[in-house]
TrEMBL record:
One of its GO terms (molecular function) is metal ion binding. The keyword GTP-binding does not apply. InterPro entries: DUF34/NIF3, DUF34/NIF3_sf. It comes from the Bacteria. Pfam families: DUF34_NIF3. This is GTP cyclohydrolase 1 type 2 homolog. Keywords: Metal-binding. Homohexamer. Belongs to the GTP cyclohydrolase I type 2/NIF3 family. Signal peptide: none annotated. The lineage of its organism: Bacteria, Bacillati, Actinomycetota, Actinomycetes, Micrococcales.
Length: 274
């Protein structure tokens, strides 16, 4: 009989918890380690919709990328979102586990998957991990053949699931690009990174107005590509499910099909350029 602890052990083998950033809160948040598991649902977020989807799938465990309890809470009463999620998980007997920055830094992690899907070669982390220089936050690589920025963005748009915001781009569509830096998830903290500044494009998520504007003023030849956070990181889920299925063939791993991107629709002035 496979247990929650068995799944945790496989997760720790793939994404060691001690390699997560110090501020991160990965691991088991809800559940009994010795409870039996036949099916595990994977999702980016521990949302109420994903909890309901996991229940409908008949899962005994929900594995998410984003930790539900990343920010401190002082109550788990079912009067707010996190309390309702925890209440529902306990009521249904479902365990909750998360692998976050420890799943970002590894080969075949979030940024590595994006880089591979984009066809990048000669990959290296933007911020190497102390324990292993092949691990780390973000990736930089080279395209096999230079592309125009427009061609590169079209390639990027094809690998990500569609969202309301699509891909937002700052740069000349005709400029040639070859060296690409990227960071899956929020990445404007790396705008001053040495490898980013040596690249033709920096692709990431959650770019804010002022940091992006200042970066472009100082580095007009480096294009910025902003991808929806959910879209960028969701590519990891299928790979994680495949890795865990290979490690635990007696357990079924299923990715929830809920889109947890918070933006529902957009509006543009009639005739305006999009």
């Amino acid at each position: 009989m496979t247990t929650v602890q068995d799944v945790i052990n496989s997760c720790r083998s793939l994404w060691p918890e001690h390699t997560a950033e110090q501020w991160d809160r990965v691991g088991l948040s809800v559940g009994e380690p010795h409870a039996p598991v036949r099916k595990v649902a994977l999702a980016l977020d521990a949302s109420l919709a994903n909890c309901a989807a996991a229940q409908q799938l008949g899962a005994q465990m929900l594995l998410t990328h984003h930790p539900l309890l990343l920010q401190a809470v002082h109550s788990v009463a079912a009067t707010d979102y996190k309390g309702r999620v925890i209440t529902e998980l306990i009521r249904s007997g479902m365990a909750l586990y998360s692998a976050h920055t420890n799943a970002d830094i590894v080969p075949d992690g979030v940024s590595d998957i994006i880089a591979t899907r984009l066809g990048l070669q000669e990959l290296q982390p933007l911020v190497p991990a102390e324990h292993d220089s092949s691990h780390g936050i973000g990736r930089r690589g080279r395209l096999a053949d230079p592309l125009s920025l427009q061609e590169f963005v079209d390639r990027a748009a094809a690998i990500f699931p569609d969202t309301v915001s699509g891909l937002r781009v700052a740069g000349d569509p005709q400029q040639k690009v070859e060296h690409i830096a990227l960071c899956g998830g929020a990445g404007d903290s790396l705008l001053s990174n040495e490898l980013v500044l040596q690249s033709d494009v920096y692709l990431t998520s959650d770019l804010r107005h002022h940091p992006a504007q200042e970066f472009r003023e100082n580095n007009p030849d480096i294009a910025l590509v902003d991808v929806a956070h959910w879209a960028a990181e969701s590519l990891w889920l299928e790979v994680a499910a495949q890795q865990l299925s290979a490690a635990l063939p007696g357990v079924e791993f299923v990715v929830c099909d809920i889109k947890s991107d918070p933006w529902i629709f957009s509006a543009h002035k009639q005739g305006a350029s999009k």
